[in-house]
Amino acid sequence: MTGRASKPGRKVPSLAILGGGFTGAALAIHAASAARAPLAIDIVEPAERLGRGAAYGTVDPVHRINVPSHRMSLFADVPDHFTRWLFARGVLPDPASTDGRGDHYVSRAAFGAYVADSLDGALAQAGPEVVLRHRRARAVSVSRDGRGWRVALDGGERLAADAVALCTGHAAPALPCPVSAAARAHPGFVADPWRPDALVAVHRDAAVLVVGTGLTMLDVIASLDRIGHRGAVLAVSRHGLLARPQGAFPDGFDPFAGAPVPRTALDLLALLRRGLRQLDPDVGWQEVVDAFRFRLPPLWSALPPREQRRVQRRLLPFWEVHRFRAAPQPFALATAWRDGGRLTVLRAALVGLDADTALDAALDRPGTGVERRSFDAVVLCTGPANALRSDPLVRDVVDRGLAQPDGVGLGLAVDGESQLVDAHGRAEARLRAFGPLTRGSFGEMTGQPDIVRHVARTVPGLLEALADA
């Protein structure tokens, strides 16, 4: 517990934050910073440390944030907040973390430590009337309790709160195909590449299959390189697309100001292409993508659900490799591995995995059919599962009618203030969701800058709703 109890007899409004990764910690930081009255915050998170989650809980130093430090501040009005923290803690200067532009791409572990430190700082600055308690448990259900809420925890405990915020982040990855018991027990099968000892059983000359070709694959390549791996690596995904490199980050660049509101998926694509056609020699496509992303929420909400689903089905994989770009260090390493023949990237889907002495993978290649290949190790980098199908808490709030799926089936429907929309279409001021769970409602809500801007904008309304509790 952080903070001290408020004056006896005073009813303190209470906020339960379900999920203590980056999104949950960011919400707690901004709620504590903006509070002007007593506030009790409970963060329900089974992990020992708050603010990390899967992405920032890694301890491998070669797993880097893919955005430079000056774009990763927890406070949009203090853009150098994280960079100053890095210098103050001696993380910088570090030649290995700084690119030719002078931008700093540090370890994800460093960012996780920054989030935790910022949470402590926000609570200390808020004073004794803002109290935070970390409950090391997992929330399994939410139900109404008079004008408030009751949260059931996996250990049997129940938590009462005036307001609840779902901040569960990305759902744990699911197996992409049938995997036999023998394959699951094989020492070379890595279902969780973020586990600290995930690659300990991968010997230096192992033939490795990486399933997924996004940013997690680049982290795995960096880890393999660090431990001296020298065998062949095959990376596969359904589209065979690799993350693109980062570019510059100019402020104020916006070719989409005054753009017409799209009504179809093709309109949205045409709008982005018009922005790209406005490029001049001093502007890269990365800057156009970032400007488009900043403008996306109102454009996305203007699309009918059927058109949003068309974007998800047809365009999302191509958008993501341009949106979720690679830090220069792992991008350069993967490029060198490909040029040297150590890394091969194929368009293929893993459709089955068995094991005897080796791991036997069935790969379905377009135009070729299914072929079987043997590997010493298989590492799954397929990304998060669908929360509506895999997260019991998300299923619970939908089953109770407290929430409904968003229009594309990625997560939960919320309004512009992150209020959950119930089964009857009503928004609930004291039941909200933040972060990746809301991506389907906003078009984009998985990157740290997007989450921070949205949390900072909506926290005053949440605190106002709590004041009326």
Task: Give a verbal description of the structure.
The protein is of the alpha/beta class. It contains 14 helices and 17 strands. The strands form four sheets. A six-stranded mixed sheet has the order 3-2-1-7-17-16, covered by helices on one side.
Give the helix/strand layout.
Elements: E1 14-18, H1 22-34, E2 39-44, H2 53-56, H3 81-88, H4 108-126, E3 130-135, E4 139-145, E5 148-153, E6 158-161, E7 163-166, H5 181-185, E8 189-190, E9 208-211, H6 215-226, E10 233-237, H7 265-277, H8 285-301, H9 305-323, H10 328-339, E11 343-347, E12 349-355, E13 359-365, E14 369-375, E15 377-380, H11 387-390, H12 392-399, E16 419-421, E17 427-433, H13 439-442, H14 448-467
Parallel strand pairs: 1-2, 1-7, 2-3, 7-17, 8-15, 9-10, 9-15, 10-11
Antiparallel strand pairs: 4-5, 5-6, 12-13, 13-14, 16-17
Helix pairs in contact: 1-4, 1-14, 6-10, 7-8
Number of DSSP strand runs:
17
Helix content: 25-40%
* Distance separating the two termini: 23 Å
* Uncertain stretches: 1-7
Q: What order do the strands of the largest sheet run in, or round the barrel if closed? A: 3-2-1-7-17-16
What is the count of DSSP helices, taking H or I runs of 4+ residues? Answer: 14
Into which percentage range does the β-strand content fall? 15-25%
